[in-house]
Amino acid sequence: MAGMNDIRNGLIITFKHDLFEVVEFQHVKPGKGAAFVRSKLKSLRTGQVIENTFRASDKFDEVRVEKQHKQYLYDDGSFYVFMDNNTYEQMQVPYDVVGDLKLFMIENIEVTIKVAPENVIIGIELPITVEHKITECEPNIKGNTASGGGKSATTETGLVLTVPFFVEEGERIKIDTRTGNYIERA
């Protein structure tokens, strides 16, 4: 059992019959009364963020999460298939666990899979940047660069993002997986 003093960012707990990750917390010691912790918790099942206040008497179960490094192989139509590079063992991950991260995943990308006890997959962490090839892009029109901004482009995975005017179809670019924004040409 863990208590109020054990709360930290990234901690995964069992709370209200679900697994939650502590996204943000603030320890508050008012001038009068007992200390407490205000926190924002993100459900690992639904992605919903809730706010909660923990008091010194509150207890909860801390969940030990194992991080496994895997390589994304392919989408088999029902699952995403990942492989352990050391044992060559393959793992099938359901679509709902991956969610919108599929737009950043290309074959052979290294990811970190978070596994809770009883081999329950609770999430996937991508590298901070990935390289994608531009498959569709508006043509560059002379004079566009004066306004700044950019144009819309689609990558090989179907990700639509804004790129600078000088980027052309067929080029490889780096993308920030946290924001989905263009970084630079690869």
Brief summary:
The protein has about 190 residues and is an all-beta fold. It is built from one helix and 15 strands; from the N terminus they run E-E-E-E-E-E-E-E-H-E-E-E-E-E-E-E. It folds into three domains: about 5-60, SH3 type barrels (Roll), CATH 2.30.30.30; about 65-125, Nucleic acid-binding proteins (OB fold (Dihydrolipoamide Acetyltransferase, E2P), Beta Barrel), CATH 2.40.50; about 130-185, Nucleic acid-binding proteins (OB fold (Dihydrolipoamide Acetyltransferase, E2P)), CATH 2.40.50.
Can you give a write-up of this model?
The protein is mainly β. The protein folds into three domains: 4-62, SH3 type barrels; 66-125, Nucleic acid-binding proteins (OB fold (Dihydrolipoamide Acetyltransferase, E2P), Beta Barrel), CATH 2.40.50.140; 129-185, OB fold (Dihydrolipoamide Acetyltransferase, E2P) (Beta Barrel). It is built from one helix and 15 strands. The protein has one helix at 95-98, and strands at 12-15, 18-28, 36-43, 49-55, 61-62, 66-75, 79-83, 90-94, 110-116, 120-125, 129-137, 151-155, 160-163, 172-176, 181-185. The strands form three sheets. Strands 4-3-2-1-5 form a five-stranded antiparallel beta sheet, with no helix packed on it. It has a five-stranded antiparallel beta sheet with strand order 8-7-6-9-10. It starts with 11 loop residues before the first strand and ends with a strand. The mean pLDDT is 87.
Number of helices: 1
- Mean residue pLDDT: 87
Instruction: Indicate the CATH class of the largest domain.
Output: Mainly Beta
Assembly type of the chains comes to single chain
The CATH topology of the largest domain comes to: OB fold (Dihydrolipoamide Acetyltransferase, E2P)
Rg for CA atoms: 21 Å
Content-based structural category? mainly beta
Element-level helix/strand string: EEEEEEEEHEEEEEEE
Instruction: Tell me the overall shape.
Output: flat
- How much helical structure, as a percent, in the residues? under 10%
- CATH architecture assignment of the largest domain: Beta Barrel
Number of strands: 15
* Strand content range: over 45%
